[in-house]
Design brief:
Elements: H1 3-8, E1 30-31, E2 37-38, E3 45-48, E4 54-59, E5 64-68, E6 76-79, E7 86-95, E8 106-107, E9 114-122, H2 129-132, E10 139-148, H3 153-159, E11 171-173, E12 190-195, E13 206-211, E14 215-217, H4 219-225, E15 257-258
Parallel strand pairs: 1-8, 2-15, 10-13, 10-14
Antiparallel strand pairs: 3-6, 4-5, 4-11, 5-7, 6-7, 7-9, 9-10, 12-13, 12-15
Bound molecules: the ligand NS(O)(O)c1ccc(OCc2cn(-c3ccccc3)nn2)cc1 and zinc ion.
Length: 261
Amino acid sequence: CSSRVGLSQMHPMWQEPLEVPGGERQSPIDISLRKSVFDPNLKPLVTQYDPRTCQQIWNNGYSFLVEYDDTTDKSTLRGGPLEDQFRLCQFHFHWGENNSWGSEHTVDRHLYPAELHLVHWNADKYALFEEAVVAENGLAVIGVFLKVGKTHEGLQKLVDTLPAVRHKDSVVEFTKFDPSCLLPESTNEYWTYAGSLTTPPLTEAVTWIIMKQPIEVSHDQLAVFRSLLFTSAEEEVQKSMVNNFRVQQPLKGRTVRSSFT
Ligand SMILES: NS(O)(O)c1ccc(OCc2cn(-c3ccccc3)nn2)cc1
Ligand SMILES: [Zn+2]
């Protein structure tokens, strides 16, 4: 997908950028259980991912992206809170330097060691990711919390490839990976709210769908995430890729809906 274009020209991310003009719906947020509102009209999520659309893994200097061919409707998301059909463009993670923190969203202030984002764009309304990324109702991102536990067999194929993309701007072919193996068993229980990208350009184009059930990965699998580098091979000082998460943003009157009571 074309999301490879935008990020690497962005300014260094982790110095919190100045207030986004009109930043009324920024992400991530803390999800307060007692303030979220059950919405019985929320439907089950429908994901149809074709592993043959998986193309490559790329270290973009902020995270590693697993990128999918989004030129056809082969890997899609619909249902849930969505009115339209969205195409999978890429997925990536955010994590900490240790297992105490790393997720972007929190649940009653509880931090997870990492968070998966599956990024989709509205193919019913737009022709390309880069159009959708700056548009109302342009993107739908599924967030899945990671917690430390047993080894995640499906993730291991990805983890084994990470040493090949240790440095910023490295790319390696990565095929036949079905990202539905990274979804929790129950995809009917989620929170949803109107938000933004959590990295530049921070555009307020995202319908967030945060799964209630985390997935389990092993301590060692997370350690391989932390072996990646923010820096390219040419740079003298190598910086470990850790703490690549944005701090929680003000809710500003938004309501978080839940698909479960
Ligand atoms: N962390 S997150 O899931 O919220 C998330 C998800 C996707 C993101 O893409 C940024 C981006 C923008 N562009 C772009 C390309 C061409 C023109 C204009 C913009 N490319 N990538 C950032 C954060
Ligand atoms: Zn993300």
